[in-house]
Amino acid sequence: MLKHILKLTIIINLLIILSCASGSKSAPASGSGFANESLDYRLRRSEEVSAESRMITYSASLELSVKDIEKTRNTLTEQVKNNNGFIVRETENSITTQIPAPKMDSFIDYAKTLGSVERETKTGRDITDQYRDNVLRLDSLKSVRNRYLALLQQAKTVSDILSIEKELERVNLEIERLEGQIKHAELSVTYSSVTVRFNEKVKPGPLGWVLYGFYRGVRWLFVWN
Question: Is residue 120 part of a domain?
Fold first, then answer.
C-alpha cells in the first residue's frame, strides 16, 4: 500500500513542479472563460508589479586616459573602500569592483576626475519576474520536501526508504540551486558592477609636436570654425 502511495505522491509532485515551470507560458487562445481569466490575472499582476519597485541590476564600464597608472589604481582602490565596496578583479591597468547600488553614480563621477574619459557605458537589466518565479518554485519544492519527509517517517521497507531518500536528494539539490540563484539576484541588485580601465597618456616627442603644429596649421587653412 505504501508503494502505491509513494508512486502517487511522486506523480503529483512532478505535476506541481511542471506547472510551476510552465506558469509563465501563454494562456490558451481567446474565446474560453479560462483564457479570459488568465489574461485578467496577468494584467492585474503586471499592474501590481509596475506599482512596486522593480529589481534592476546595473553594470558600468569606464575607460580613462591618465598620467600615472599606479597612482590611479591606488586612488581607485581607496575610493572603493570609502564607498563600502569590494574588488573582485584587479590587473595592472584595470579594476572590477562591486559598489553599493546607491553609490555607483558618485563613484563613477569621482573616477572621471582622475583622467580623460575615453569611453563610458552603463546598462541595466530587469530581473523582477525571474526572481519572483524562482521564489515561487522554491516554496513549491520546500512543500514537496516536507511531504517526502512525512512519507519517510511512515516507510517500513528498505526499498521504500531508499526510493524516498533518492527523491529527497533530487529535491534538495534543486532547492540549493534555486537558493543560490535567489541570493545572487539579491546581491546583484544591492551591488552594482563597475569596471574602470586606465591607460597612460601618450606624450608626443619633439617630432610629434612639429607634426601636430603642421596639422593645426593645415586645419586652420581648410576648416572654418
Answer: yes
